[in-house]
Amino acid sequence: xxAHLIEVxxxxxxxxxxxxxxxxxIEAGRAALECIDDPVTLVDLRPVSVESLWQQVxxxxxxxxxxxxxxxxxxxxxxxxxxxxxxxxxxxxxxxxMRSRSWLLTHxxxxxxASATLVVEITDDFVVAFGEGVTxxxxxxxxxVVAEAVxxxxxxxxxxxxxxxVIDAPATVPGAGTLATAIAKKLxxxxxxxxxxxxxxxxxxxxxxxxxNDGRSVESTRPRTAVTARRAxxxxxxxxxxxxxxxxxxxxxxATRTHGLLPTTSFxxxxxxxxxxxxxxxxxxxxxxxxxxxxxxxxxxxxVALHVTQSRVALPxxxxxxxxxxxxxxxxxxxxxVDFNPRGRSAGRPVVTYREVRVGHDIRWTVWVDNxxxxxxxxxxxxxxxxxxxxxxxxxxxxxxALT
Length: 404
Fold this sequence. Notes:
Blueprint: E1 4-8, E2 13-15, E3 22-23, H1 26-34, E4 40-43, E5 46-49, H2 50-60, E6 68-73, H3 79-88, E7 95-100, H4 101-105, E8 117-122, E9 126-130, E10 134-138, H5 143-157, E11 164-168, H6 176-186, E12 194-198, H7 200-209, H8 226-239, E13 250-252, E14 257-259, E15 262-269, E16 272-277, E17 282-285, E18 293-297, E19 305-312, H9 318-331, E20 337-346, E21 349-358, E22 361-370, E23 373-382, H10 390-399, E24 401-402
Parallel strand pairs: 1-6, 6-7, 8-11, 11-12
Antiparallel strand pairs: 1-2, 2-3, 4-5, 8-9, 9-10, 13-15, 14-15, 15-16, 16-24, 17-18, 18-19, 19-23, 20-21, 21-22, 22-23
Helix pairs in contact: 2-3, 3-8, 5-6
């Protein structure tokens, strides 16, 4: 019995089994991918639930006869996005298993060990390398510069540990094939490392040779049933309640690392990447007091959280940043923003700091500019308990950097 597989993202939704690639309606697929972080979207000017839109799109590429279907998603997608797809996949016959793209790509590796394989995934905007650690490089520079940066990142992530580097080159991502070839040429050819570029032809060959419950898995093989999917969707709905797309694009990678005794994961918000606690859920905050932001909240105490905002600026100097923030603070009600310091220092860099006073908690903001991107990290703690988030705060500030 052969495996049945549907590819979801990064740019299209398509079936890769049963006689070749079958792509979902371009407009419907694009809408589903663009609104995946929202509960409701507009289709032909009519409000439609995102869950029903995804059900429709997945049904359009279903084999129609499979008892078990594997749905492959980008490895850097957040748990919320995966849960949205999992819940919608209940329209598929039988059981739908959720798998990361890295899981599929490791089947191109001659190595028997997934831990000896490093996978590189290319999207429209950035390149992600998954190995012992995770690195992200933006695709906003000359292709040779990007390829060099990715190759350096690969060697830094897995110096001597990776026997094989598998580079994803989907035809659905513009320029991915050219960039994948450039990255491969930048990697050392010492005989100790095998480099495999996976284009669409090779990807379909992998799918054709894949068997259900294939043993070379880098994650749990427990299938997601419809009941599990509905529970996941319910939890996701609670996490993102009141959130609206518009602050930037959020990505959380699939791998975790350890910062001291704290499991961490890379988090990308717009043009900024930083380390955050791996188990803390994220949501967008665009209503209520304060600026629009992404909030990363402790699962054990809702008053303990990190906040992240980012925006491009014309002037990179700290003086200009301090002047801008001071004007905003002066325009706010008295007592909301206090302890303004235009000459602060944190994690070895000059910063602007101030404190936001809200009912039940304070948020200590640290702001600086990196490569024309203004980065703001807010560390929220219950009143009088600064130590409640001090470790997570220091980690986020020290690791945050612009992707440009």
